[in-house]
Amino acid sequence: MFIDGQRTWSRSGATFEAIDPAVGQAFANVALGDKSDVDAAVAAARRATEHGWAGLPPVRRVRMLNRLAGLLRERTRELAELESLDVGKPLRQAEDDVAAAAGYFEFFAGVADKVFGSSIPLGQGFVDFTLREPLGISAQIVPWNYPLRLASRGIAPALAAGNAVVAKPAAEAGLSIIRLADLAAEAGIPAGVFNVVTGGRETGAALASHPGINHITFTGSVPTGIAIMKAAADNVVPVTLELGGKSPNVVFADADLERAAATSASTLMQNAAQTCTAPTRLLLERAAHDRFVELLAKRIGAIRLGRGLDNPDMGPVVSERQMHRVLGYITAGSRDGATAVTGGARAQAAELAAGYFIEPTLLDRVKRGSVLEQEEIFGPVLTVTTFESLEEAIAIANGTPYGLVTGVWTKDLSKAMTVATAVKSGQVRVNGYSVEGSIGLPFGGYKRSGFGREQGVEALAGYTQVKNVMINYGPA
Ligand code: NAD
To answer: What are the φ/ψ torsions at residue 7 (nearest 5 degrees)?
Structure first.
């Protein structure tokens, strides 16, 4: 772990193993933090805030965050190899994650000296203005799917606004976050401003319930988000929750089906679809169904599986537990009448047998309201449900407890706008799912996908509190 500017083992000496999911074997021992380590990290963060991190001229934070971004870019290969080994994702994708992490620090370096307040007119004899002040210590509880990218998404705005951070990576994968802390120190960020306590569920719970923290950002599952919100309530601490999704991808018959199918196949390959935004719930207009399924099946059939470090199209899922969860969903789906067009099982090839590989899977005839159609699978499985009308497409799109992202494919602007305004989701993406510069776009959930916004200038609102100052300078 990394506390008060230094790498350290846990106070108890306990460790756990980091597993390479491509071969199912341990490759590192990691410190297992407990409450005493969390206490030490929170105390270090408190000292750092009291010693003036928040009071620095903001331009100094701008320079440090930019230096950190530069170091991330310089060390891309090293960080990507670590991330690929830890999570299982193809090296190329891990390199994109490092670039995204650097992008977060660059973006929030750009706004660190622009955290403006406002002035409010009260008439002659008065001046009134607001100050946006940091919250203090931000706890960042990070999932395993994009450790470096998602940690940076929260840590960059937290630091930019003048907060100190205690991060808790997931036990399944999070070694890159310790390297991020090394690089932050190298970039000149003072000791105690950014701490990392490694460990699992108990370590996270000790951090979430710590009376010394002032804020929590959490990304992960709904049940854990609820537990964290309850812990935060006891200390009256604000939370930002990003709790995943079940993102619909609505394909109308008039769409560019080739492009839509290529995007669907690539979101399946991206981190083996262990991505909160992955549009894994395909809603196909009946007239496009057969053609789209054929196009997509051809692309999925060509996906090469392999160890992340060998740069295949798709790697394993992160852990044995996750593999069994995903296979369990596939089994439940077939009981409900879904049919596998491609895939549907653990990968069979001998060289993949020791790892946690699942065949890229396309399941057709998935019933509305079935478990497969309602719950976040978080693995390489696309489900297909058909619709007849615009109204039905909207009803199905809105028919889960989640609301993170909605994809829409059509050449008809009126249809696209009707869906965009009717769906309950934090983002809508029309005729394309990824875009360069997406860091600037506010991101977050409706419904059980969570609340609060990450990314973009909006993210700063989650890391600051507003103080109003009224001055009466007129005659008494
Ligand atoms: P999780 O939500 O339990 O874990 C995420 C993080 O929270 C980890 O760092 C974990 O150690 C920590 N944590 C767990 N319990 C905690 C507690 N009580 N208090 C504080 N911190 C705690 O997720 P999981 O069990 O690893 O995965 C289960 C499912 O969650 C996945 O199958 C997937 O559906 C979903 N998930 C979503 C995302 C996302 O990006 N939205 C990421 C990971 C997992």
So the answer is: -70, 140
Q: If 0-12 CB within 10 Å is exposed, 13-18 middle and 19+ buried, where does residue 184 land?
A: buried
CA 35 vs CA 40, 66, 202, 238, 380: distances in Å:
9, 33, 8, 21, 36
Q: Whose CA is closest to 403, among 421, 425, 422?
A: 425
What pLDDT sits at residue 277?
97
Residues 361 and 380 sit within 8 Å (Cβ to Cβ):
yes
Q: Cα dist. 444→415, 425, 453, 455, 459 in Å?
A: 24, 8, 5, 9, 10
Measured between alpha carbons, how far is 313 from 253 in angstroms, rounded to an integer?
Answer: 28
Burial class of 431 by CB neighbour count within 10 A (0 to 12, 13 to 18, 19+) = middle
pTM, to two decimals: 0.97
Q: Which atom of ligand 1 is nearest to the CA of 208?
A: 20
Give the closest residue (by CA) to ligand 1 atom 44.
220
Phi, psi dihedrals of residue 411, rounded to the nearest 5°: -95, -5
For the chain, the average pLDDT equals 97
* Ligand 1 pocket mutation pick from 224, 271, 325 by most atoms within 8 angstroms of CB: 224
Ligand 1 neighbours, Cβ below 6 Å, are: 141-145, 168, 170-171, 200-201, 204-205, 208, 219-221, 224, 227-228, 242-244, 276, 325, 376, 378
Tell me the sheet residues that pair with 427. Answer: 405
| Ligand 1 atom 9: residue of nearest CA | 170
Q: How many CB atoms lie within 10 A of CB 203?
A: 24
Residue nearest to atom 28 of ligand 1 (CA): 221
Question: Which residues does 65 contact at the CB level (< 8 Å), separation at least 6?
Answer: 105, 106, 108, 109, 112, 156, 159, 160, 187
What average pLDDT does range 401-424 have in this prediction? 98
**Beta strands of 69-214 (E only): which ranges?**
126-134, 137-141, 164-168, 194-196
Confidence of residue 476 (pLDDT cuts 50, 70, 90): low
Active site residues: 168, 242, 276, 376
Give the distance (Å) from ligand 1 centre to CA of residue 211: 22
Mutation choice for ligand 1 from 32, 97, 197, 201, CB with most ligand atoms inside 8 A: 201
Q: What average pLDDT does this structure show over 338-359?
A: 97
Give the pLDDT confidence score for residue 51 in this predicted structure. 83
**Which residue type sits at 96?**
D
